[in-house]
Amino acid sequence: MFPKTIRQFIAALSVLLIANLSAAQGPNGNDKPAPTQFNEATIAELQADMSSGKLTSVELVQFYLDRIAALDSGVNAIIQLNPDALKLAAMTDRVRGHVSLEKYPLLGIPVLLKDNIDTHDAMQTTAGSFVLFGEPATRDSTVAANLRAKGAVILGKTNLSEWANFRSFFSTSGWSGRGGLTHNPYSLDRNACGSSSGSAAAAAANFTAVSFGSETDGSIVCPANVNGVVGIKPTVGLVSRGGVVPISHNQDTVGPHARTVADAATALNTVVTTGDPRDPYTSGVPLGWEACDGSVGPYACSPSKPVQDGKHNRPPIPADYTKFLDRDGLSGARLGLTRSGISSAPPLVQAAFYQAVEKMETAGATIIDLDNQDCMGITGNSCFNADPRFSGFSPPDGELLILEFDFRNDLASYFATRVGVPAASGTLQTAIDFDNAHPDVEMPYFGQEIFLQAEGLAKGANDCQSGFTSAVIQDAHCPEAVAPARQITYNDALIIDHMAGVSLESALKTYDLNAIVAPTDSPGWTTDLLLSDHFLFASSGLAGPPGYPIINVPAGDVRGMPVGVSFIGTAFSEGALITLASGFEATTHNRFEPSFTPDVTTAHTAGTFLSNLPNPNAVPTKHHRM
Relative to the CA of 19, which of 35, 125, 566, 582 has its CA 20 to 30 Å away? Predict the structure, then answer.
């Protein structure tokens, strides 16, 4: 197996070097400054210019190619450009004026796709690993097919955290064996988060009109947060995962990164799918809405069996999410505030979040403090403690077990669709063996502990899994762990994470809330390939396990680094979240362009001038690390 793999691997490296050289030099060489004339242009503005004849799709694609050539050597958001992009743009220019923009809303608009979304063209789909490098996918993903059907020009693929950040407990977000490290365009020494690192960084850097990433738990909204863009993580099953390298059918979803809520909503319209035979969830409901009564199939929960109360069936899907855009979308809204750990963050980071919440109040929203902290940090007059007292969200203790169990099975199903790559028709063990054979390229900084743990799981859905415990469910047939927890099974894990979704819905109903509002993540941290990621807090875990939607919106500026807020709702509430997000955006206008500075903190680290020597008689103070 491996002699052939090595030959493919060497060929892969050659192609990658050529692609990187092309991206660095570009069609006009690398001595020209980056163009800016279409920076921050919206899809609506670009379509108006193309319809009026002021602009062609070929010119727009060339603009983005020139920006990538000038700037991406520092950001490294792009893993591969589409060699046919200009040809495809020319085709859309020829049909413009002969087709309806209502039918082709992305006609001539360049888009980028994360490198785990299949395209049947000259580009690779590798999830950042050379085990999937070789022949391109034999079929477009449903997402790619839908984008082409709406007139989009697929400009290229974006780098990502390898395997969507699901290989090691000590990974560095934005790094992949094939693509290297994606940097944050606001400070190139800082992290772009992950796993959809390149997608968010490219949208932030004006390398594309819109891009698409994927999320299992945080991989759209965290990159959106640290890169200062809007990110929509849709309900599981609203967008098909057919032809997307998986982690878990229970949690994976695909969604847009854009510079405005309107562009994100427009992009979402083009990929929404119902009834895709490649993804049964497009005809069903996510885990939080499933009955979990064990009546369908081998598992406790099934997308085809919703809670039988008449309120959790898959609803009609809106034809146009832009109809929910509303500059006054916060007026009269009731938002449930949860801090998601930000109280342990530095004061500057906390202040940015609380100022954003106060702006929501100013725009007419009422804030309900679900943390029962007497509206700590908020000075407005429209914040109140939850009454009755909120008992808290049910912990999604089953998440990691679900992801690992699903990954082992779902990955083998995906590998069966690929040909001409080392992983073709293989299993998770195939990927493990490949990494072990090529550690210098695939594992120079971190290992594959998650792969090994997933491969070692017991096979059955009702087998007790050593190392996975919870106190949420007491499974009497599983061994005790540290009291009051016991070991759990995969089916236990499904029910536990379903209960997490039920508790979020309960909060929405009990306090008559339009959505939950929370800080998305901390600002981008300094990338550290030795000590891995430095996460301070996150709120995506409220929505990830039950499969619920989130929208991140830029919310503030912490010493030159963007931070965002998340609006979180129950399944299929994207319309309501878009209303809130667009109202917040209109109130704050917090999106700002990146600086591409090598180090945003340099200006604040000059040190002490010798003319201001310390006082030797001063009383010493304790160092904060002691």
Answer: 35
